[in-house]
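Progress report, Aim 2. The chain analyzed during this reporting quarter is listed below.
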Amino acid sequence: MASATVRNVPLLDDDTIPFGEEDEMRDPSTAAQKYTHPYVTFFHLFFRGASIIIYMFCGWFSDSFITSFVFVVLFLSADFWTVKNISGRLLVGLRWWNYVDDDGKSHWVFESKNSPSYQSRINKHEQRIFWLGLILCPLFWGLFFLLALFGLKFKWLLLVMIAIALNAANLYGYIKCNYGAGKDLNSAATDFVKTQFFKNAVDMMTKPSGAPPPTNVRPTGVV
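Predicted structure tokens for the chain:
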């Protein structure tokens, strides 16, 4: 029996850097940099981008389905591990994981560091890249699923389904972290749309209107 909780439970007993305290050891002078975690940001996009590129162009380099399958799955696995354990923790202050207690119950933990002091240290460029990569790549795999399905390429359909499962797991986990484990995805999406609609409405109402064009303009030259 599984349950979902939101709390701070150490991933390992010897976790030397507790969740949310990674940046406290960082030099404060790096806060003004455009990217405070450039290598993490790079690999956040590299593995998932490489898996998509290999899937699209593997036929140019090899006619073996097994070789293409293995390489794509390897990059998908590396991407899943990197996004779940590294980039989400460092780039946006989110973490999700699972543990089994002494009674054999499985618990899903969705953690989020929402303190103002921690949020002020999150790099907005890296945060934007994290969410764009997390959302856009499953859309590509969804498109590949439709192409493989209507093209009757069932062996490739299996590979695409693996990719969708791994990408969707991270996407679902981080959405739960960001919006809270007690809120379902429908209500989270509804709240997001409401927030954006209200924000746009306020911007339209507070935006100064331009001066109206003159109506009584007399021609200066008559032929």
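Helices lie at 38-61, 65-91, 116-119, 124-150, 154-179, 185-206. The first strand starts at residue 2 and ends at 5. These observations will guide the mutagenesis work planned for the next reporting period.
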